TrEMBL record, chains A, B:
Transmembrane regions listed in the UniProt entry: none
Higher taxonomy: Bacteria, Bacillati, Actinomycetota, Actinomycetes, Streptosporangiales
Keyword Transcription: yes
Descriptive protein name: ArsR family transcriptional regulator
SUPFAM superfamilies to which the protein is assigned, alphabetical: Rhodanese/Cell cycle control phosphatase, Winged helix' DNA-binding domain
Keywords of this entry: DNA-binding, Transcription, Transcription regulation
InterPro entries in alphabetical order: ArsR-like_HTH, HTH_ArsR_DNA-bd_dom, Metal_resp_trans_reg, Rhodanese-like_dom, Rhodanese-like_dom_sf, Thiosulphate_STrfase_CS, WH-like_DNA-bd_sf, WH_DNA-bd_sf
GO molecular function, one term: DNA binding
Ranges where the HTH arsR-type domain occurs: 5-99
Stored PANTHER family: ARSENICAL RESISTANCE OPERON REPRESSOR ARSR-RELATED, HTH-TYPE TRANSCRIPTIONAL REGULATOR KMTR
Alphabetical list of Gene3D superfamilies matching this protein: Rhodanese-like domain, Winged helix-like DNA-binding domain superfamily/Winged helix DNA-binding domain
Domain Rhodanese: 129-213
DNA sequence: TCCTTATTCTAATAATCGCTAGAATATTGG
DNA sequence: CCAATATTCTAGCGATTATTAGAATAAGGA
């Protein structure tokens, strides 16, 4: 077997890798990055059985990535601190940079045009400073209420079609959803561009923006 | 099963986690961070069978973490670019920060006094500027020749005892080995302190220092 | 206290991954 | 072209991990 003196240390280190090696756990971490959640909410939004969810959350907790808070009979999970969010962003960025099949999958999933034409964080700042842009938050009113990008107006994605007349023809529209791999904003951008407007998606959605704000 | 629309993306993302979930692969990455290596060298230094080593290297290559270069019948592996080195550092740092059992393991492995008393990168710069320090490279002459911290003198760890008289009594001695989890420099520090000198280890050894130089 | 709800713990099965042996490939030197 | 060396590919076994059902725990309300 492996017999170098540092072996036990790498054994421990690998535990972090193991935790990040299950798709479900990475998904849960991204959900938690959008805000505190109960086990049931996470199970629902992650689309997997409750017991399964709980088991994965235990592993995340054992690795020191998430924290729990009890409120009555419910247990609320959240990322343990901001550095977890920052690390998660770095992890995803790094993976996207060098795994070309991952990039291909993202483009296929979100739509090629909407992916490459997406607005990055610094670009958004620039656009907001110029004032030539309307920023649209497509998430639920509750999510918008809890926190949103300053200057954004709330138009939940389901109401987009019926509230189209609130959106201008002569300014760029930037739309964002939860992110980082959410389809909602690319879809909305397609709709808006279909009406002849100038719309772009915010790369990585709310989560990426928040990571940038909180961890630089 | 898992049935949310972003599932295939997280599936791909998890491949990076999987690659980082085996102790052997993390070890190989750290070895590669010290410089280019052939498969045989890696197998030897990692203390595992050749075929096994090759299999792991394939996985690292599939994930875009390492590059290969053929020279005659040998194949030389190296980290694909500097960002891999930087990410690796971030990964280890993050793991050490929040997994207390990992910290405990490191302290036990390297020695408690030598770990907490270790010199960090910025501290070393400060000490070198002041000129009140002797920096000792404990690695092999070949490794020293290829690259070393500016200002370091080469005293391979095996020669330390017989070359003790080259080291001063009135200055702090900072010693480093390959790192980041190498026992050589903590051991040397114990020997030096045993003679009554003032010695400290460089935290993370050559690898940490190089990561700092190359990726900031 | 007892019942209900939310979650975790325990244990068993199913899927995945690491390891290793044998065959295959690629390059160099004769 | 053949032999030698370095490495990779293929396949099967063994170990680890995910999943999930059932029992257990913990808090809140009747």
């Amino acid at each position: 077997m492996t017999d170098f003196p540092e072996a036990p240390i790498y054994e421990h280190l690998a535990r972090l890798g193991k935790v990040l090696s299950a798709p479900v756990r990475l998904r849960l971490l991204d959900l938690l990055d959008q805000g505190e959640c109960t086990v049931e909410e996470l199970a629902q939004r992650g689309g997997l059985p409750l017991k399964n969810t709980s088991a994965h959350l235990q592993q995340l907790r054992a690795a020191g990535l998430v924290a729990t808070r009890r409120e009555g009979t419910r247990i609320h999970y959240s990322l343990r601190d901001r550095e977890v969010s920052g690390f998660l962003g770095r992890f995803q960025e790094f993976a996207e940079e060098r795994m070309s099949d991952l990039r291909a999958e993202i483009e296929e999933h979100l739509g090629r045009d909407e992916t490459v034409g997406a607005v990055t964080g610094p670009e958004l700042e620039e656009l907001l400073r110029g004032g030539e842009v309307v920023l649209v938050d497509l998430r639920s009113p509750e999510e918008y209420e809890e926190d949103h990008v300053p200057g954004a107006v709330s138009i939940p994605s389901r109401q987009l079609e019926e509230r189209l007349d609130e959106l201008p023809w002569d300014m760029t529209i930037v739309a964002y959803c939860q992110g980082p791999y959410c389809v909602v904003s690319p879809r909305a951008v397609r709709v808006l561009n279909g009406t002849g407007r100038q719309a772009r998606s915010l790369r990585g959605g709310y989560v990426h923006w928040k990571r940038r704000r909180d961890t630089g």
